[in-house]
Amino acid sequence: MKKCTCEFLGCLFAAAFAAAAHGANVRPVSHSGVYPHLAMFNNEGECGTGAVVPWAGDLWVITYGPHLPTGSSDKLYRIKPDLSRETFPGSVGGTPANRMIHRETNQLLIGPYVIDAKGNVRVVPPAKMPGRLTGAARHLTDPANKVYVATMETGLYELDMRNLAVNTLIRENGMNDRRIGAYLERLGMPWPAGWDRAPRTHIPGYHSKGLASGFGRVFISNNGENSEAAWRNPFVHSGVLAWWNTPGGDWRMIRRCQFTEVTTPDGIYGNEHPETNPVWAMGWDAKSVILGVTTNGESWAYYRLPKASHCYDGAHGWNTEWPRIRDVGFGDGTLLATMHGTFWRFPKGFTPASPNGIRPISTYLKVIGDFCRWGDSIVFGCDDQTKDAFLGKRGLKKDAPRCRQSQSNLWFVKPEDLDKFGPPSGEGYVWLNEDVKAGDVSDPFLHAGYESMRFTFRRADGREVRHELLQDGDWVRVKCLEDAKKATARFRYGPAPCEAPKLCEDEPVIVVKDDNGKEWRFPNVNGDDRVVCREIATERDLLYVGGVWYELPAENAGGFSALRPIALADDPVDLLYGERGLMYLNGRPMVLDDLWRNGTAVKAYWLWERFSEKGE
């Protein structure tokens, strides 16, 4: 089996790019929008893309390693329009994913770096602002000079964008204190300004993601929990949506479940209309994706959307990266949102008074940390190959080639090509093993944008529950017409039914055992008995069984019980591994999401549906 050869391939790609750069108007080689020479590496257990931002005529990119509050080997990169790249020599690394353009000073804040309009870079060193920097927001009382910066352990700083002075407003939850203290002691440096006076947060969760301000408040989203149970069970209580506005005070909880994005229509500029812009938050629970919105900062309305992928469901929060809502220049009043494996069109004017217009574009497989419009492409910053594999280890991969250095890449996609990936599909619940009363009405669930829908409402004993579906524009709610103990109301959406993957009564099957010894049965549609499992995107696996491709979540996100079919395979799989953001299938470089493009995704979807209906 072929080993990963990062160093050797790196030399080849660097040489190829150098040769191309000397030619006239020669663009570097790409495979479906991934340029191998732009791959990014670090010396950590993971190398994800924290932020990608067009600024000062170029594209700026930062990478991150896992749980590194005092810096790492990660870099700040500057990519030119000709796709040549510079690495900032003063890079300090860490686990950064914050970015914001501050109009008053005409500067970009990306990670710990402050960049002016000419591309000059200043650095806020980790000793002055330690922590895993995750979000930035406009200041409530001094927006012309300062911004807020949050950490993944729910700490909060204010940063002066003119002189880079830092003040601590809320101390982290204590997880990083020992590491930060030892780091500062080695440097002979004091704790950050204001650290001794700031309250330590007691808000639940430890894996904060987004930050936004509006209506006189600062909002933070948190999508993880630090517990043994959260590492195993995707359904334990986890994460939080919270707010703050009083120096000396702690965050206050809005809702106790996993949230990632929190933002406003002004996007990367923060919130320049804080009294009128809605604030949006996206997250999830065991039942579905959750979209929250407030138009006054106090009351929130919630909507539910289906999950296309369950790979994001780990309660610890590690499996998600940073799902976002971003302006990518569609030009029709919609933004692009990513959540649980779906690309969504998201109306810029979404509020409870104007809730229609959210539409699934397609489903995808890549792990995306951030994205932006640059030139004629949407650039997705990905999280591709980890050296550590974290909780994604399983016996099926014991003979897999090992990645010796964590790495990721950018993925350039034309806006008009977004609908060429997986067909819109997904599932979600409005009630899940819950006691409901006659007359109870569920949260609104997205109904628009899917070609087929199956709905079931049952008690735990399997008996159907009498109900009524109440449709209001793009949304549908369920009204229960009788009392029901431990009732489940489930929506399942997919492409239009396909008659071509017919199953025979004696369809051959392949039996696969998971790491707990449980057997799972798969249809064998091409007579190939091989089973191949590889991690091609961080913390989720690509599974080939019986001529069909599947996405397989980590065990802590549901494992085999939550897999989804992708497409039929063109050929039997002899060799499969990942490198530089690409997947090498039988020696051929391609992007993971190229698997959708052979035209058999709908066949694979209905093949699996009918196989499952047989009780297999």
Explain the layout of strands and helices:
Elements: H1 6-21, E1 40-41, E2 48-55, E3 58-64, E4 76-79, E5 85-87, E6 99-102, E7 107-110, E8 113-116, E9 121-123, E10 133-138, E11 146-151, E12 156-160, E13 166-170, H2 177-187, E14 208-214, E15 217-222, H3 228-232, E16 240-244, E17 252-255, E18 258-263, E19 279-284, E20 289-294, E21 301-305, E22 325-326, E23 334-339, E24 342-347, E25 359-363, E26 368-374, E27 377-382, E28 407-408, E29 410-413, E30 426-436, E31 445-446, E32 452-458, E33 467-472, E34 475-480, E35 484-494, E36 509-513, E37 519-523, E38 531-537, E39 540-545, E40 548-553, E41 564-568, E42 576-579, E43 582-585, E44 588-590, H4 601-613
Antiparallel strand pairs: 1-28, 2-3, 3-4, 4-5, 6-7, 7-8, 8-9, 10-11, 11-12, 12-13, 14-15, 15-16, 16-17, 18-19, 19-20, 20-21, 22-23, 23-24, 24-25, 26-27, 27-29, 30-35, 31-34, 32-35, 33-34, 36-37, 38-39, 39-40, 40-41, 42-43, 43-44
Could you please describe the fold and organization of this structure?
With 616 residues, this protein is mainly β. The protein has 2 domains: 6-420, YVTN repeat-like/Quinoprotein amine dehydrogenase (Methylamine Dehydrogenase, Chain H, 7 Propeller), CATH 2.130.10.10; 426-494. 7% of the residues lie in helices and 38% in strands. The chain is built from 4 helices and 44 strands. It has a 4-stranded antiparallel β-sheet with strand order 2-3-4-5, with no helix packed on it. Strand 12 and strand 13 (166-170) form a beta hairpin. The relative contact order is 0.11. Residues 1-24 have low confidence and may be disordered.
